[in-house]
C-alpha cells in the first residue's frame, strides 16, 4: 500500500526508466546487466528518498555518501543519475566511448561518484575512513556502501565489519545486494554465505533483511536508521539477478550481456510489458 | 628530534593529520594519549587500514600510516595502488623495519622488493632516509606534499648531520673521479666507512645519499657516472627494481653506458641473525664493500658502528 510519505509509483517509474537505460547500455559492447538490474531499486530508493545527495551539494562535506563497492552495477547508478539530474541522459549513449568516462566500473570523473571501484572488497574500508572522520567531527551525515553478495568472498569485507564494530560506526550502512549469484554461479553452490544475517550479527552489526525490490520495505528498514546506537547497520536486500526481465532472471549465464539491437528491442518490450501490468494493478489497488 | 616527536609536533599543530597503525605501535607508543580520536588502530588489517586512510584523505585528512614494511608494501599493495595511487590521495606510508633492519625476523619480514613495488605505482613517491636525522629532515616536506608517499622508515641514530632535504634531490656527501658510491637507507653508514677505507688507499672517492628515490635526481646520477671511473650502487634490496635498476634506466634514457658495480641481494633472501652479523655474513660491512671494490684485501679494520637492535 502506498503511504503518504512514500511515492511508490514515482519510484517505480524512475526504476523502470533506470532499467531502460541499463538495457540500452547492454548493446554495443555490453555491460553487467544481471547485477545492475538487481541493484536498480536499491540505488533508486537510496538516492531518491534516503540520502542527502544531489547535484548542488556534491562539494559539501556535510552531505551523505554512497560508495558503490560492487562496481558491476554502475549502469544502475548512471541511469539513476540521469533520471535524478546528476548526469545528462544523452551521455549514456557514450557508454564505452573514448569520448566520455562512462564505462564498466565507477570512476570519479562522473560527478556524484564518490570513489572508483572494480576491485572487490575495497570500498567497505574506504567508507569506514569517511565514517570515522564524520564521527570525529561530530557530523550527522550518513555513509552507505553497496556490496554484492559474491563480493563477500573477499576477506576485507569482514575485516571492515570488525573495524566498524570496534569504532562503533552507527553512521555507516552496508547494503548487501543479495541476488544469490556471483560471477559465474550461485553463491550457495560456490562459497555459501548463509546464514548471512547471523554472520553479520555475530560481527557486531545491527542487521535487517528485506525484499530489495519492495520500496515500502526499503523505506521501513532505512527509516529505522540507525538501527541500534553504536552498531554498524547492515541491510541484506534480497534481490533477483536480472529483475524486470523474466527471460534472464536468476540465470547464472546472464552476468555480463552484450545484446544486439534486436534483442534490446525485445527486452525493452518485455520490461514494459511486465512493469506496465504491475504498475496499473498497483495503481488500481491504491485507489 | 625523534620520528615520534616530529610526528606528534606536526599532528598537534595541524588537525588534518591522522595517525594510523595496523597494530604496530613501535614507532608511535606515546601518540594515542596525545591525539585521542585522531589516532586510529585498525588491528592487524593492513589492507583495511589503507582503505580507511583513503577514506579519511577523501575528507581532507592526511593519514600517516604505520605497518611493517613487508606487510605494508606487499599484503596491502593493491589497496595502496588502487585506493591511494589511482585517486592520488595524500596517504603517507611509514614503512617500518625495511631491508636489513628486519635482521632476525626471517624472509617473511624481509622487505627487499618494496622500492621496486612502490615506485611502480603512478603518483607514488618513494623515500629512504639514511638514519633518523635524515628521516626527520625529509618528513615535513614529504608530509606536506600532495602525493601519496612511501617512506622506508629508518630511526637508527648516528652522529652524521645531514644537509637540508629537497624533494627529488640527492644529498652529495663528496665527489670523486675514481669511484662513487650511490646508496640510501641503513647502508649509508657502511658506505661512509667504505669511503674512508678507499680514500686511505689513495683513491678519489665520492658518496651520494639517494634519499629521494622517486622523484629521482637524474642530474646527479648522470654527473656521477660521467665523472667517476666506477659507480657503485649499494642497497639492501633485491637487485631487480631498486637503485641498480633506477640507475640503469636513467643511463639508458640518456643513451649512456657506465661501469657499474652493484651491491644488492640477487634472487635470494638474506640469512637472518643480529644486524651486525647479517651485514658481515652478506658482505655488506664497510670494509667488505671497500675490499670488493678494490679487488684485494686491505689491512684496515672494520670500524665499530653502534648497532641498535630491532626485534619485532
TrEMBL record, chain A:
Organism name: Mucilaginibacter xinganensis
Q: Does the keyword Cell membrane apply?
A: no
CC cofactor? thiamine diphosphate
Per the similarity annotation, which family is this? Belongs to the transketolase family.
The Transketolase N-terminal domain covers 31-267
Q: Which Pfam families match?
A: Transketolase_N
Query: What SUPFAM superfamilies does the database record attribute to this sequence?
Result: Thiamin diphosphate-binding fold (THDP-binding)
Spell out the protein name for this chain: Transketolase
From TrEMBL, chain B:
Q: Which Gene3D superfamilies match?
A: 3.40.50.920, 3.40.50.970
Q: Which cofactor(s) does the record list?
A: Mg(2+)
Domain Transketolase-like pyrimidine-binding, by residue range, is 1-162
In the record, biological process GO terms are: isopentenyl diphosphate biosynthetic process, methylerythritol 4-phosphate pathway; terpenoid biosynthetic process; thiamine biosynthetic process
- Is the keyword Ion transport assigned to this protein? no
UniProt keywords (A-Z) are:
Isoprene biosynthesis, Magnesium, Metal-binding, Thiamine biosynthesis, Thiamine pyrophosphate, Transferase
Classification via InterPro entries:
Dxylulose-5-P_synthase, THDP-binding, Transketo_C/PFOR_II, Transketolase-like_Pyr-bd, Transketolase_C
E.C. designation(s): 2.2.1.7
An example of a GO molecular function for this protein is:
metal ion binding
Q: Which GO terms describe its cellular component?
A: cytosol
Matching entries from CDD domains are given as: TPP_PYR_DXS_TK_like
The pathway where this protein functions is: Metabolic intermediate biosynthesis; 1-deoxy-D-xylulose 5-phosphate biosynthesis; 1-deoxy-D-xylulose 5-phosphate from D-glyceraldehyde 3-phosphate and pyruvate: step 1/1
Write out the similarity annotation: Belongs to the transketolase family. DXPS subfamily.
Q: How does it assemble?
A: Homodimer.
Q: What is this protein called?
A: 1-deoxy-D-xylulose-5-phosphate synthase
Which species does the entry assign this protein to?
Mucilaginibacter xinganensis
Amino acid at each position: 500500500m502506498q503511504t503518504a510519505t512514500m511515492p511508490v509509483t514515482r519510484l517505480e517509474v524512475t526504476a523502470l526508466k533506470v532499467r531502460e537505460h541499463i538495457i540500452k547500455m547492454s548493446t554495443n559492447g555490453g555491460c553487467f546487466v544481471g547485477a545492475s538490474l538487481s541493484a536498480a531499486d536499491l540505488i533508486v530508493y537510496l538516492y531518491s528518498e534516503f540520502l542527502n545527495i544531489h547535484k548542488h551539494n556534491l562539494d559539501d562535506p556535510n552531505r551523505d555518501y554512497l560508495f558503490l563497492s560492487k562496481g558491476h552495477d554502475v549502469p544502475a547508478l548512471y541511469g539513476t543519475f540521469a533520471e535524478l539530474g546528476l548526469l545528462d541522459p544523452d551521455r549514456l549513449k557514450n557508454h564505452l566511448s573514448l569520448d566520455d568516462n562512462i564505462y564498466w566500473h565507477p570512476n570519479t570523473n562522473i560527478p556524484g561518484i564518490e570513489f572508483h571501484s572494480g576491485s572487490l572488497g575495497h570500498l567497505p574500508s574506504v567508507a569506514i575512513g569517511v565514517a570515522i572522520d564524520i564521527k570525529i567531527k561530530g557530523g550527522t551525515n550518513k555513509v552507505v556502501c553497496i556490496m554484492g553478495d559474491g563480493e563477500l568472498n573477499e576477506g576485507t569485507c569482514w575485516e571492515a565489519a570488525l573495524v566498524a564494530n570496534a569504532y562503533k560506526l552507527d553512521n555507516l550502512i552496508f547494503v548487501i545486494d543479495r541476488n544469490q549469484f556471483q560471477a559465474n554461479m550461485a553463491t550457495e553452490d560456490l562459497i555459501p554465505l548463509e546464514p548471512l544475517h547471523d554472520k553479520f550479527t555475530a560481527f557486531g552489526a545491527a542487521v535487517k533483511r528485506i525484499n530489495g525490490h519492495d520500496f515500502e520495505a526499503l523505506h521501513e528498514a532505512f527509516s529505522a536508521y540507525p538501527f541500534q546506537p553504536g552498531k554498524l547497520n547492515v541491510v541484506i536486500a534480497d534481490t533477483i539477478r536480472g529483475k524486470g526481465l523474466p527471460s534472464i532472471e536468476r540465470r547464472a549465464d546472464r552476468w555480463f550481456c552484450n545484446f544486439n539491437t534486436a534483442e534490446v528491442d525485445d527486452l525493452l518490450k518485455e520490461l514494459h510489458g511486465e512493469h506496465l501490468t504491475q504498475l496499473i494493478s498497483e495503481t488500481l489497488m491504491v485507489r | 628530534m625523534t620520528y615520534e616527536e616530529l610526528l606528534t609536533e606536526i599532528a598537534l599543530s595541524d588537525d588534518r593529520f591522522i595517525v594510523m597503525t595496523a597494530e604496530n605501535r613501535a614507532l608511535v607508543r606515546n601518540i594515542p594519549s596525545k591525539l585521542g580520536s585522531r589516532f586510529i588502530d585498525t588491528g592487524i588489517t593492513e589492507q583495511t587500514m589503507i582503505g580507511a586512510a583513503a577514506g579519511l584523505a577523501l575528507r581532507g585528512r592526511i593519514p600517516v600510516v604505520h605497518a611493517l614494511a613487508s606487510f605494508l608494501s606487499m599484503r596491502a599493495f593493491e589497496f595502496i595502488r588502487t585506493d591511494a595511487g589511482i585517486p592520488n590521495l595524500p596517504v603517507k606510508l611509514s614503512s617500518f623495519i625495511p631491508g636489513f633492519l628486519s635482521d632476525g625476523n626471517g624472509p617473511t619480514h624481509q622487505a627487499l622488493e618494496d622500492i621496486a613495488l612502490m615506485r611502480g605505482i603512478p603518483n607514488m613517491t618513494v623515500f629512504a632516509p639514511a638514519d633518523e636525522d635524515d628521516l626527520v629532515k625529509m618528513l615535513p616536506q614529504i608530509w606536506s606534499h600532495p602525493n601519496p608517499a612511501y617512506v622506508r622508515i629508518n630511526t637508527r641514530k648516528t652522529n652524521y648531520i645531514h644537509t637540508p632535504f629537497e624533494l627529488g634531490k640527492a644529498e652529495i656527501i663528496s665527489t670523486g673521479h675514481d669511484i662513487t658510491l650511490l646508496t640510501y637507507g641503513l647502508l649509508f653508514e657502511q658506505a661512509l666507512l667504505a669511503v674512508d677505507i678507499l680514500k686511505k688507499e689513495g683513491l678519489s672517492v665520492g658518496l651520494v645519499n639517494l634519499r629521494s628515490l622517486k622523484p629521482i635526481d637524474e642530474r646527479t646520477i648522470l654527473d656521477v657516472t660521467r665523472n667517476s671511473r666506477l659507480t657503485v650502487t649499494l642497497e639492501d634490496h633485491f637487485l631487480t627494481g631498486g637503485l641498480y635498476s633506477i640507475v640503469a634506466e636513467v643511463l639508458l634514457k640518456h643513451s649512456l653506458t657506465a661501469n657499474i658495480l652493484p651491491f644488492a641481494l640477487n634472487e635470494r633472501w638474506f640469512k637472518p641473525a643480529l644486524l651486525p652479523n647479517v651485514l658481515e655474513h652478506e658482505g655488506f660491512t664497510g670494509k667488505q664493500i671497500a675490499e670488493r671494490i678494490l679487488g684485494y684485501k686491505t689491512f684496515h679494520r672494520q670500524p665499530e658502528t653502534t648497532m641498535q637492535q630491532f626485534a619485532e
